[in-house]
Specification:
single chain, 221 residues, mainly alpha, 0% strand
């Protein structure tokens, strides 16, 4: 894991020597692994220090508190997600595909990526940290911008301003449904349990309906 993204943050104190940088890498790696096994609030600095093979004081020498650990790990996640979104939504990748095919495939990819990061994303959503929320918002705004650049040329009969707003709201609605899954975890929030495949399909259908004013026939093939 590359520590460069994390040490630019105010609450993570930059290591000067390679040995210290390796320690920060190890702490963040172990922290993310622990998140996959237990909730954020159950992780103790003592246990993290034991797993990272360092003293607790060494963690506090680099991280202000446990929230700073989430912030550092999420900063790295933000950079990775932005890179993934840029590659996923490259217009050249979708030449010749219908807008329906494109949106369904994109939602499949986004949900699969979120699923692989689920423990960290859940912790980021629940710690009530403004800086973490701002970084999550940056991902959503970038997703909206890239989707607009990809989809706008395929939409007919809609003004530029309305088109931008519809795509942005569709992105926000899709993200809200995914965040609901993060908040509730294994608890089913609705009356009916749905599979991940069905969730992806329904989110894509809702995206298309929202973007096209509940009428996907306005989309150009």
């Amino acid at each position: 894991m590359n520590v460069e993204a994390a040490v630019k943050l105010d609450r993570i104190y930059a290591p000067q020597q390679q040995r210290s940088r390796d320690t920060v890498e190890r702490v963040l790696r172990e922290f993310v692994l622990m998140l996959a096994k237990k909730p954020f609030e159950e992780i103790s600095m003592a246990e993290l220090a034991h797993r990272a093979r360092i003293a607790v004081t060494s963690i506090y020498a680099r991280f202000e508190n446990k929230q700073a650990l989430v912030l550092a790990a999420h900063e790295r996640h933000r950079n990775e997600m932005i890179g993934n979104i840029g590659r996923l939504l490259d217009p050249a990748r979708w030449e010749g595909d219908s807008i329906e095919t494109l949106v369904h495939a994109v939602m499949d990819a986004i949900i699969a990526d979120w699923r692989s990061r689920l423990p960290l994303l859940r912790a980021a959503l629940l710690i009530n940290d403004r800086e973490v929320y701002e970084r999550a918002a940056q991902i959503l705004r970038y997703f909206s911008e890239r989707m607009a650049a990809l989809l706008s040329p395929r939409l007919a009969g809609i003004s530029d301003n309305e088109r931008e707003h519809r795509i942005d709201f569709a992105c926000r609605a899709a993200t809200a449904l995914l965040q609901q899954q993060l908040l509730f975890g294994e608890v089913e929030p609705g009356r009916f349990r749905i599979s991940e495949a069905e969730l992806s399909r329904r989110i894509a259908d809702q995206f298309l309906a929202t973007m096209n004013g509940a009428n996907s026939s306005t989309a150009k093939k």
